[in-house]
């Protein structure tokens, strides 16, 4: 049992997710429902959430008291804080990005402290890197000199998570995600989102115009691996979680031309052109692959999806959605 400031008792296994309609959130919500049941999950976002089987609420995470009220009403014991403005969109509105990303995270931390929430998850990113560092197999403890406001907010977010763990004992856990690839949602304004959009173009049998150079190598991860890593970390014994700032996790690294070649196994006539824009400068500051030995050692992380497997899943499921006949990837075979 846990007690909030007003002495309200808190039950176990009540999960709050902010930013639940985003790329990761929409898939993570369903995975957590599968573990705890729909009555134990509260999915929130600043816009209405559709097609969810759990409790859904509108929430502006920059309002701390609104977060506290949801915690009290639903006896929340764990929070997955996914609300954020992403890298490319963030550069268009830098001060707003900082305000949204930092204020919302500090509100979640402080509301969790006040109400003695059991466990909190913070999604960090490869955007924390920048400047002079080893771009191949980038170590977890490399210097963090981000080139974007989004990256700055993630570095600060990691540090605030470490602070709340060290000072208040709040069980904060975090992953540095590579670019996430999923079929469930459209690109959301991230620099790595070309690796989602390109599959939509392929299934629509149209050519793709890429905003990165063909040989720009970046670390990526399929959404199923990203969700599995998140849940494995959150369910691992607390004593084994040795990194509170954030763990590197490596999925698979590839370039735009690698993706094109992979897609051509299914669509031989698929082509891409390349017109690098401001996102190229962002990508040039990021790792080409990550050293994730700490995650592999501490909680036994291991990715499952290669580029070929990602392409099979993306093409199969997008074709199924397009045909409006099969909507569950578990039933898709190629």
Describe the structure.
With 334 residues, the chain is of the alpha/beta class. It is built from eleven helices and 14 strands. It has helices spanning 23-36, 64-74, 87-92, 94-115, 149-168, 194-203, 223-235, 256-263, 278-283, 293-299, 307-323; strands spanning 2-3, 9-10, 15-18, 41-45, 55-58, 78-81, 119-125, 171-177, 179-181, 208-210, 218-222, 247-248, 252-254, 272-274. It is globular and about 55 Å long. The N and C termini lie far apart (48 Å).
What's the SSE pattern? EEEHEEHEHHEHEEHEEHEEHEHHH
Overall 3D form? globular
The whole-angstrom Rg is: 20 Å
Helix tally equals 11
With strands numbered from the N-terminus, the spatial order across the biggest sheet is 5-4-3-6-7-8-12
Distance between the ends = 48 Å
Question: What's the helix and strand layout?
Answer:
Blueprint: E1 2-3, E2 9-10, E3 15-18, H1 23-36, E4 41-45, E5 55-58, H2 64-74, E6 78-81, H3 87-92, H4 94-115, E7 119-125, H5 149-168, E8 171-177, E9 179-181, H6 194-203, E10 208-210, E11 218-222, H7 223-235, E12 247-248, E13 252-254, H8 256-263, E14 272-274, H9 278-283, H10 293-299, H11 307-323
Helix pairs in contact: 1-7, 2-4, 4-5, 6-8, 6-11
What would a concise description of this structure say?
By secondary structure, this protein is of the alpha/beta class. The chain contains eleven helices and 14 strands. Helix 1 crosses helix 7 and helix 4 runs parallel beside helix 5.
